[in-house]
Amino acid sequence: MSDTSLHNLTRSAEPEFADYVALLKPRVMSLVVFTALVGLLVAPVPVHPFIVFTSVLFIAIGGGASGALNMWWDADIDRIMRRTAKRPIPSGKVSEGEALGLGLALSGLSVMMLALSANLVAAGLLAFTIFFYVVIYTMWLKRWTPQNIVIGGAAGAFPPMIGWAVATGGVSVESVLMFMLIFIWTPPHFWSLALFMKSDYDDAGVPMLTVTHGHDATRRHILGYTVLLAACSLGLAFTTIGGPVYLTAALVLNFRFLVGAWKLWKRDTPQAEADAYGEEKRFFKLSLWYLFLHFSALLADAALRGLGLTGGAA
C-alpha cells in the first residue's frame, strides 16, 4: 500500500466544516473577492446589486476550488514545509480524494453559475484562471522553474479582469492594467516571503529563486520588478478609472516600495539571514498593504466620480 493510501486511511479524525473551508484557502480567496469586486465596481457600466453579489460569490467559489485542487496536488510537499504542514490534508483531517472531488465540483459549479448570472466572457475568464492556476502553475511551473511565481502569478491577477467582464462583457485597457498591477506585484511579494522561508522551499525541492540563485540574486530581481511595478501602477492612474486619490496613493506607496526594495538590495546575505525579523519581513508586510491600498484607492475614486466630484481620469 502506498504512503498516500496509508495517510488517507489513518487521518486523525472526521473532518469538520472548518477543515473544508481551509481547503479553499480563505486568505487567498479574500484577495480574489476584493480585487474582483473592485474590478466590477470601477467599470463604467452599472450592475444590479444582485448580479454583483452572485457574480462575486461564484468568483470566490472558483478561487476556492483552485485552492482545493492546489492542496490536492501539493499534498506531498505540504507535509514537508513548516508553513503548510498544518493544512487539512497533511494534518490528516481531509483525504486527498475528498479535496480533489470538492475542487472539481466547485470548479464546474462556479463557472456554470457565473455564465448564467453574468456572461460567457466572465465565465470563460474564470475557467481559464482555474486551469492556469491548477495545471500551468501548480502541476507544471511550480516544481520546474525558478520563474514559477513570475508566470504563475497570472492566475492571481485575473480576478479584476473577471469582475470588469461581469460589468462590461469584455476586456479593456483598464482591466489589463489592473491585471498587470497584480501580475508584476506577485514576484516581489512572494520572493520577499521566500527570503525568510528559504529552508521550506529547499526541503520540499521547490525551485524558488532563493533556492536556485540565492539571496543576492533574489534581491536584485525584487528591485527590478519593483521598478516595473511602479511604472505600471502610475500608468493606471491616467486611465478612465484613475483619479486624484489613486494617483496620490500610487505615488506614496511606490516611493515606499522602491525604498524598501533598495534597502533589501543593499543588504548582505549574512546580515539578512541573522535578522529573521528584518527588512525581508517588513517588505513582505508592506507588499500586502501595497496591493490593498491601490485597489481601495481605485474604489474611492469611483465613488467620487459617482458623486460627480471628480472627472474620469487623473
UniProtKB/TrEMBL annotation:
InterPro entries: Protohaem_IX_farnesylTrfase, UbiA_prenyltransferase, UbiA_prenylTrfase_CS, UbiA_sf. PROSITE patterns: UBIA (PS00943). The keyword Magnesium does not apply. The chain crosses the membrane at residues 28-45, 51-73, 94-114, 120-141, 148-170, 176-196, 222-239, 245-265, 286-304. Its EC number is 2.5.1.141. Its main location: membrane. It comes from the Bacteria. It catalyses: heme b + (2E,6E)-farnesyl diphosphate + H2O = Fe(II)-heme o + diphosphate. GO terms for cellular component: plasma membrane. The keyword Manganese does not apply. Pfam families: UbiA. It is found in: Cell membrane. Keywords: Cell membrane, Heme biosynthesis, Membrane, Transferase, Transmembrane, Transmembrane helix. GO terms for biological process: heme O biosynthetic process. It is a multi-pass membrane protein. Pathway: Porphyrin-containing compound metabolism; heme O biosynthesis; heme O from protoheme: step 1/1. GO terms for molecular function: protoheme IX farnesyltransferase activity. PANTHER family: 4-HYDROXYBENZOATE SOLANESYLTRANSFERASE, PROTOHEME IX FARNESYLTRANSFERASE, MITOCHONDRIAL. Carbon 2 of the heme B porphyrin ring is defined according to the Fischer nomenclature. Belongs to the UbiA prenyltransferase family. Protoheme IX farnesyltransferase subfamily. Converts heme B (protoheme IX) to heme O by substitution of the vinyl group on carbon 2 of heme B porphyrin ring with a hydroxyethyl farnesyl side group. Interacts with CtaA. This is Protoheme IX farnesyltransferase. The gene is ctaB.
